Amino acid sequence: AGHFSRRLQTLPPPATIEMARRARALRAEGQEIISLALGEPDFATPPAVVEAAHQAALNGQTKYPPVDGTPALKAAVARKFGRENNLIYQPSEIMVSNGGKQVIFNAFMATLNEGDEVVVPVPYWVSYPLIASMFGAAPVYARCHEEDGFRLKAAELSRVMTSRTRWVVLNFPNNPTGAVCSRQDMEEIAEVLRRYPDVWILSDEIYEHLVFDGMQSYSIAAVAPDLKERVVTLNGVSKAYAMTGWRVGFAGGPQALIAAMSAVQGNATSGVCAIAQAAAAAALDGPADLVQHMAKTYSRRRTMVVEALRQIPGVTCAMPEGAFYAYPGIAGCLGRKTAAGRLLETDRDFAIALLEEAHVATVPGSAFGLAPYLRLSCATSEVILEDACSRIREFVKNCH
Ligand code: PLP
């Protein structure tokens, strides 16, 4: 066998991959599996966006793009930040990456050294701690409690900050809980961050448009403009415009950091597919009612799923304020045995049994750092969601 890097050893196989592998095996046996495991919109990319890509390809936008993004997309991103976030960024303060994920990769690679710490609110999207670990930094976890609507509280942030903290990650609306921080929460968080003037702040706002019940999502750089010089405001077209496969994300941030991130990206990928960038610019400049329509649909599905889950004895479920997941607690189901005789000791046991016995794929909360919960994606049709919820109800009913 060949040699592999030490860095690779910091990458554990994610729980999502294990669930996907088990789901595939069952499908191969001819079972019909409902998958609520993936965080991917079921909508098609808007046709006008696809047409913009078509035109870009015909018009010869087929050469190497500038590493940090095409001028046209960077201009559209600057307009978006101004219009939607009240944030003014110059072109030199903006970069385009292969998804929001590469923004994080670039930012962490450009700044982290062995022994540094990255503060991540729990529960979290798995990539923050995984990417931080790749660069030798230690993730440090700030707990967000269900009683607080899974919002990050300033006191908890304050508790985990140290002299080694290099980054604080904020992700509201949150994956997996859907929590949205209020303006007041953000102001209190900013107050803590002011005490640590050397710490960078990653504000992942990729779910910003998917907020419900009149909630509003806040950008920390707009709430606390004095912090803007340390904030990377991350966003992208994947979730808002149903464009996960186009791989376009972007960030606004201080010029020196954006330049360092571009240097990383230049070596990794030479930038983002020019055709996809033309499509993303069309999406950002396109009509806002498409996004509104999708947000309304997710809101309706969320309410339906949460209400169905709350009917199940042993299951609790907070009402998510944003994103497109439900995060039910299953503590009341643990210690029981399934119809097939499996003992449910953890949320992983529950998720595996649910998949194998009721054919519903979910992700256990432990994968996001907070157990015992499940994450269900509501980015699928109401008929499928109803079927999934009744399968979960039957599954739990048959546990004893
Ligand atoms: N941030 C969060 C919280 C996410 O859930 C995701 C995708 O799952 C991303 C960022 C990155 O998305 P993309 O790389 O498709 O832009």
Question: Can you describe what's shown?
Answer:
- The chain has two domains: 7-44 and 290-397, Aspartate Aminotransferase, domain 1; 47-285, 3-Layer(aba) Sandwich (Aspartate Aminotransferase, domain 2).
- The N and C termini lie far apart (48 Å).
- The chain has helices spanning 15-28, 47-58, 71-85, 99-111, 127-134, 154-160, 183-194, 220-223, 255-268, 274-285, 289-310, 347-358, 382-397, and strands spanning 34-35, 94-97, 117-122, 138-143, 165-170, 200-204, 231-236, 249-252, 325-326, 360-361, 363-364, 374-377.
- It is α/β, with parallel strands linked by helices and 400 residues long.
- The relative contact order is 0.17.
- 40% of the residues lie in helices and 12% in strands.
- A seven-stranded mixed β-sheet has the order 2-8-7-6-5-3-4, sandwiched between helices.
- Helix 1 (15-28) runs parallel beside helix 12 (347-358), helix 4 (99-111) packs across helix 9 (255-268) and helix 6 (154-160) runs parallel beside helix 7 (183-194).
- The mean pLDDT is 95.
- The protein is built from 13 helices and twelve strands.
- The protein binds pyridoxal-5'-phosphate (PLP).
- Residues 39, 99-101, 125, 171, 175, 204, 206, 236, 238, 244, 249 line the site of pyridoxal-5'-phosphate.
Defining traits:
single chain; 400 residues; alpha/beta; Aspartate Aminotransferase, domain 2; 2 domains; 3-stranded antiparallel beta sheet; 13 helices; globular; binds pyridoxal-5'-phosphate; pyridoxal phosphate
